[in-house]
Write a structure and sequence with these properties.
Elements: H1 3-22, E1 29-39, H2 46-70, H3 82-92, E2 95-105, E3 108-120, H4 121-133, H5 135-159, E4 170-172, H6 194-229, H7 236-243, E5 248-254, E6 257-264, E7 267-272, E8 275-280, E9 301-303
Parallel strand pairs: 1-4
Antiparallel strand pairs: 1-3, 2-3, 5-6, 6-7, 7-8, 8-9
Helix pairs in contact: 1-6, 2-3, 2-5, 2-6, 3-4, 3-5, 5-6
Length: about 300
């Protein structure tokens, strides 16, 4: 079986399992809907205004979901900071766009848009606990989350120099200043127009979000594929043939044996003398043994 066939098969299996589980989880689902209004500026196109409206509606919906999850008492067991709860909750949820309408509100054209996020509370708690237990994934998503938040702030700044209103209910695009005209024959540019800057900010936000989503997707696929594919006695080459190159690697020498730990998703394969000895959920620091070993508490292992 090739790596592509294995990963694809695992992904399909989990789609089917998720669909089955959903039928029994309706009682634990929570829905958050947000309506947002964005007033068009003089240089806004309709498509740009719609994107700006949804960007803010999505931010507010995910923020409310983060506030809700932080209120759960179980969160205290995960030792996550407040910004991590918000960031990681946003990373594992999907926001649905419900539709938009362009209206004339007084003297201004406005885009009214609605977004919705629906989630199973226990599934999100499980995801947060999973991220908290895996330092590498936690760090990777933490860095990505900070990039997303920075990009969101940039989008808000483009909508209003003073930032969004305190209640988050409406954003007004500023009137675009008149750009100076370069003298004939000298060329030159006064810099990007407000519309171009807005497009750049939106593009950056969407690109960073795709990067974050890819981190979550890749980690889940590699982790589940590793659970199925890795068996005792396999060599590093055999594991790489199935899963690709490891995302991290550690080595150690003890008592005449060579230990190698390689990370795939949120799993660590521990090899001793080129043979898989155990499959771990996380590494544990233990005295002279260091990090790369197969000792420690049972709950940190898939098998050993």
């Amino acid at each position: 079986m090739t790596r592509y066939q294995l990963v694809t098969g695992i992904a399909c299996m989990f789609v089917l399992l998720s669909a089955t589980a959903d039928a029994f989880a309706d009682a634990d689902r929570k829905t958050i809907e947000v309506e947002h209004v964005y007033q068009l500026g003089d240089s806004d196109s309709r498509s740009e205004a719609v994107r700006m409206c949804y960007a803010e509606a999505e931010r507010r919906a995910l923020e409310q979901a983060g506030v809700y999850m932080e209120s759960r008492t179980e969160i205290s067991n995960f030792a996550l900071k407040k910004d991590e709860v918000f960031s990681f909750t946003a990373a594992v949820l999907q926001v649905e766009r419900l539709g938009e309408e362009v209206r004339l509100d007084g003297q201004h054209m406005s885009v009214h848009c609605r977004s919705r996020v629906t989630f199973n509370e226990q599934e999100v708690l499980d995801s947060l606990a999973y991220i908290a237990r895996n330092p590498a994934l936690r760090n990777e998503l933490g860095e990505s989350g900070r990039e997303v938040e920075s990009a969101r702030r940039k989008v808000s700044e483009m909508a209003s120099p003073a930032g969004p209103p305190a209640d988050g209910s409406e954003m007004r695009a500023p009137v675009a200043p008149v750009a100076p005209v370069a003298p004939v024959g000298q060329g030159g540019s006064a810099g990007l127009s407000r519309s171009a800057e807005q497009e750049k900010a939106l593009g950056s936000l969407e690109s960073i979000k795709r990067k974050r989503d890819e981190i979550v997707r890749r980690n889940k696929e590699l982790t589940e594929a590793g659970r199925v594919a890795v068996a005792r006695g396999m060599t590093p080459g055999e594991v790489r043939e199935m899963l690709g190159n490891p995302q991290a690697r550690r080595t150690a020498e003890r008592a005449g044996h060579a230990y190698v730990c390689e990370r795939y998703g949120s799993l660590w394969v521990v090899f001793r003398d080129e043979a898989a000895l155990c499959l771990r959920r996380q590494l544990e620091q233990r005295g002279i043994e260091g990090l790369c070993h197969c000792a420690g508490s049972a709950d940190s292992f898939v098998w050993r």
